[in-house]
């Protein structure tokens, strides 16, 4: 008799779905976003008299035969595959229906790390490198966006919306960079952000990696022209500035066509006693060397 009754209800319910009739059950809220281990309460309300109203669930199952409302309540939600369903059995048609809770259980990652995937030490201009961002134990991964930053600028993002697992997983993203000297000293970061919609926590939870400092080796180069002509005025101090940019920091050496006291290995020479002639400075590091000439002329006579 019991069995017959159930089968009849099921048949009727299939019919009610087909006819698209109102379920008369409402979940409040209808979508919940819960952090791993956090409490959750959802109430299921019926808009007409019920024989039984209840929650079908591995944890927090409950039912009532008196009230038009029943709560699904868990103090600490840690069950990844929980799919609570509220069901109602009614006196009138449709005799039974159910409403599935849209439940998102999330967990922020244990760690977000950034590293250089195929390389250690300083980078070399004109070579490509892979940066790797590794995210441990995040769920649900389909709501994750991995954002890559160079300084404060977002340079790339990676979304995982095509993945389906609800349980925590490990994911990673690779950024290909071809550093130039402008990247020397740049900091790269990777941010794992879970964007779970308006029901989710605001602002959306995110974890940022430690920065990866990029050091780029490049040969010396001068900001000023490679040859400079300096007019010599009697008693005036002359400055020969050979400062070059480069990484590692360039070393300097000087040579002169004029017989001169020993010249220092400094980027800048200052003196009131230069003799006319050509002074050559060489800035070098392990990436290369570059020379610069200073031509010191006596001021034309007859002025
Ligand atoms: C790192 O990997 C990228 C892509 O595979 C490659 O183009 C690059 O040459 C590699 N860099 C080094 C230093 O091995
Ligand atoms: C991801 O990058 C695309 C362009 O590459 C941009 O349009 C989009 O807004 C970015 N998404 C996020 C979440 O930042
Ligand atoms: C990266 O650079 C920042 C600032 O330039 C510095 O404070 C930090 O110690 C550096 N980190 C590493 C790992 O070198
Ligand atoms: C030398 O030149 C560099 C840039 O070319 C500049 O930053 C520096 O201040 C100059 N030094 C002197 C002493 O003029």
From TrEMBL:
Molecular-function annotations in GO: integrin binding
Protein name: Ig-like domain-containing protein
Domain Ig-like per the UniProt entry, residue ranges: 109-208, 219-297
PROSITE patterns: IG_LIKE
Domain of life (superkingdom): Eukaryota
SMART domains linked to this entry: IG (SM00409)
Record keywords, A-Z: Signal
Claim: Signal is one of the keywords in the record: yes
Record flagged with keyword Ribonucleoprotein: no
Annotated GO biological process: cell adhesion
Signal peptide positions (record): 1-20
